[in-house]
Design a protein that fits this description.
Length: 372
């Protein structure tokens, strides 16, 4: 496919956001001299707000955020962002799970509307505030006071990134058209052809954002021999341990720690477990039903003997999946047909193309009358 040619005010607005992100990250390069005071301050605030370690926050900003997007990729984002919204306002409510998601979410918003008001999570507003302030796009503004959003304006269109609980609460209160993105999770699909390199790359996918994102692997299926599945589990744990030193896990809330501990304890009853404070990997040679792992760099690898068995296990979970990581074609393309998943090689699950909302599942806007 050739380059998408969209020369428009919408593309220019997206470019301003990308340029703001690029200017920030370029201040982190030691090759260009000392780290800039602006980047240093954003990094510090970003780490505290997100709960990521400073090393994890640095990785998120420099490796996961789409600051390298070209002009053609900005045009691709405009083409895939969704239908234009006029006259607005377009309200964007951001979640705090993926701390760099603000760039893509704001890009999709300004691609669709000239009048955008952004409300961020109280747990993490650092990047969104920086981008809005630095890009200085007419009509794009931050509103931290939730009560001042246009809840009762029937002309308003809201894009909500968040949990099912948040979406249900907003549906009861918002008079305009509601569009919900999330929640979601990723799945890794492994075979006996995978080895150490694949587990090294999968560890990067798991460690990113401490496994809080809608593309983060929450479960892994291995098609092959149980002994190879166990070997893959040990390799994955060793690479997660390495990342635990180079890119330490951040702060987990008390409830997250409790769920994580319970998951590890339960996994010991069902198979073999490798764990320490930095990560936990479990292997199960027989699986009844799949369950998503909690946040905190935890993954269970379930071994099955065929693609058909893998699909049967994955099918009940498929509607909540937004990403599939697998190194084997055509298996990656053919698995769970009919579902709009981000399909990528292992190691690339957290770096999707800059082509629209990160979650490719259908997001049908809901006018007020459909929610009565």
């Amino acid at each position: 496919m050739g380059a998408v040619c969209i020369d428009s005010p919408a593309r220019d607005r997206v470019k301003k956001l990308v340029h703001a992100a690029r200017a920030l990250v370029q201040g982190s390069s030691s090759s260009a001299g000392p780290i800039s005071p602006a980047f240093s301050q954003v990094l510090k605030n970003f780490s505290v707000a997100s709960g990521l370690s400073p090393e994890g926050a640095m990785w998120a900003l420099t490796e996961a955020m789409e600051w390298r997007a070209t002009d053609d990729e900005c045009a691709t984002l405009v083409a895939g962002a969704g239908p234009a919204i006029a006259p607005g306002p377009l309200v964007v409510i951001l979640a705090a799970n993926v701390t760099t998601a603000a760039l893509r979410a704001l890009g999709c918003a300004v691609a669709r509307c000239e009048d955008v008001v952004v409300h961020t999570s109280s747990r993490d507003s650092v990047l969104a505030k920086y981008l809005v302030h630095t890009a200085s796009i007419s009509g794009l503004r931050i509103e931290m006071d939730r009560t001042r959003l246009p809840w009762t304006d029937p002309r308003a269109h809201m894009i909500l990134y968040g949990s099912s609980e948040t979406a249900n609460a907003v549906r009861q209160r918002f008079f305009g058209t509601l569009e919900v993105h999330g929640p979601g999770a990723g799945m890794a699909l492994l075979t006996d052809d995978d080895g150490d390199d694949a587990m090294r790359r999968l560890a990067d996918d798991v460690a990113a954002f401490d496994q809080r994102g809608c593309l983060s692997p929450g479960v892994a299926l291995h098609i092959g021999r149980p002994e190879h599945g166990e070997a893959l589990s040990a390799l994955l744990f060793s690479h997660l341990q390495r990342l635990g030193s180079a890119r330490p896990i951040g702060v987990l809330r008390s409830e997250e720690l409790a769920v994580r501990a319970l998951c590890i304890q339960t996994s010991r009853l069902l198979g073999r477990v490798w764990s320490d404070a930095s990560a936990a990997v479990a292997h199960q040679a027989s699986c009844g039903a799949l369950e998503l792992a909690p946040v905190g760099r935890v993954l269970t690898i379930c071994t099955v003997d065929s693609v058909a068995a893998a699909e049967a296990l994955a099918a009940p979970m498929a509607p909540m999946l937004s990403a599939l990581g697998c190194d084997r074609e055509p298996l990656r393309s053919a698995f769970l047909p009919g579902y709009s998943l981000r399909r990528s090689h292992l190691g690339a699950m957290q770096k999707p193309a800059f082509d629209g909302p990160v979650d490719k599942r259908p997001h049908t806007p809901m006018p007020p009358e459909t929610r009565l």
